[in-house]
Design a protein that fits this description.
Blueprint: H1 6-16, E1 18-22, H2 30-39, E2 44-48, H3 54-64, E3 68-72, H4 77-86, E4 90-93, H5 98-107, E5 111-115, H6 118-126, E6 131-134, H7 142-150, E7 157-160, H8 169-173, E8 181-183, H9 189-193, H10 197-218
Parallel strand pairs: 1-2, 1-8, 2-3, 3-4, 4-5, 5-6, 6-7
Helix pairs in contact: 2-10, 3-4
The structure holds 3-phosphoglyceric acid.
C-alpha cells in the first residue's frame, strides 16, 4: 500500500522529477496507461479536469493501481473536493486560487498552483507554499525566467509545465530548483489511441535517463 501522507507524496514526486499529464477521453485507457508509466519507471500521473471522465479516471487509478495520482487543471474548491474524494494524492492548478490552496492545506493535500509572475510567486509564498507550478513555461520565458525568479525566491522549487518536450527537458532538469518537469509529451495521445503503450514506456525511460544524468550533476 502506498503511503498517503503529504510528506510521503512530495518525497515520491521529488524522486521521480517527471510529471506526466493526460486528459482521459476513454476510461478503458486508464489502467494500461498507468501500467505503461510504471513499466517506464515513472509511476505518477496527473489527470486533468479537462474532460468529464477525470473524477472516474482518478478513482480507477487510485483504487486499482499503486501509481501516485494527481488531479490537474483544478479550478475550484468543488473540483478539488471531487478529486480528493476520488482518491487524488495531490492537486495541480494552472493559476493561484487562494481558497483552493487553503482548502488543500487544511486537508493536508499537496497543492501546486500555477504562477507566471514574481507577484503571484510572492502571493503563493504568503499562503505557505514553496513548490509552485510555472505555467505556461515556454510562453513565459522558460529556463531564462526561472533563473531570474531564483534570485528573489531562492527557496521556491518549480514545476515547469507548458511546452516541455524531449528537446528542452534537460535544460530544465539542470536547474537545481526544479522540483519536477510536467507535461503531455510523456504520454503521446496518438500512441495511446493506437494502443501502442510501448511507445509511452520508451519515452518515460528516455526522459528518466535525463533525470538520472542531471541528478548526478547536482550531487
Ligand atoms: C499544463 O496544463 O500543464 C499544460 O497544458 C501542459 O502543456 P503541454 O501540453 O505543452 O505539456
Amino acid at each position: 500500500m502506498k503511503e498517503k501522507s503529504s510528506k510521503a507524496i512530495i518525497d515520491r514526486m521529488s524522486q521521480i522529477r517527471l510529471l506526466p499529464l493526460v486528459t482521459i477521453s476513454d476510461l478503458e485507457q486508464v489502467l494500461p496507461l498507468c501500467s505503461a508509466l510504471c513499466s517506464g519507471e515513472v509511476p505518477i500521473i496527473e489527470i486533468a479536469f479537462r474532460s468529464s471522465l477525470a473524477e472516474k479516471a482518478i478513482a480507477m487509478a487510485s483504487q486499482e493501481t499503486e501509481i501516485t495520482v494527481g488531479a490537474g487543471t483544478v479550478l475550484s474548491v468543488e473540483q478539488a473536493k471531487e478529486a480528493v474524494n476520488a482518491g487524488a494524492d495531490f492537486i495541480v492548478s494552472p493559476c493561484l486560487i487562494p481558497q483552493l490552496v487553503e482548502y488543500c492545506i487544511d486537508k493536508d493535500i499537496p497543492v501546486f498552483p500555477g504562477v507566471s509572475t514574481p507577484t503571484e510567486t510572492h502571493q503563493a509564498l504568503k499562503l505557505g507554499l514553496s513548490i509552485l507550478k510555472f505555467f505556461p513555461a515556454e510562453d513565459f520565458g522558460g529556463v531564462k525566467t526561472l533563473r531570474s525568479f531564483n534570485g528573489p525566491f531562492p527557496d521556491v522549487r518549480f514545476i515547469p509545465s507548458g511546452g516541455i518536450d524531449k528537446n528542452n527537458l534537460k535544460s530544465y532538469l539542470e536547474l537545481p530548483y526544479i522540483f519536477s518537469c510536467s507535461g503531455s509529451w510523456l504520454i503521446d495521445n496518438n500512441a495511446m489511441n493506437q494502443g501502442n503503450y510501448n511507445a509511452i514506456v520508451q519515452t518515460c525511460r528516455e526522459s528518466l535517463s535525463l533525470v538520472k544524468q542531471t541528478k548526478e550533476n547536482h550531487s
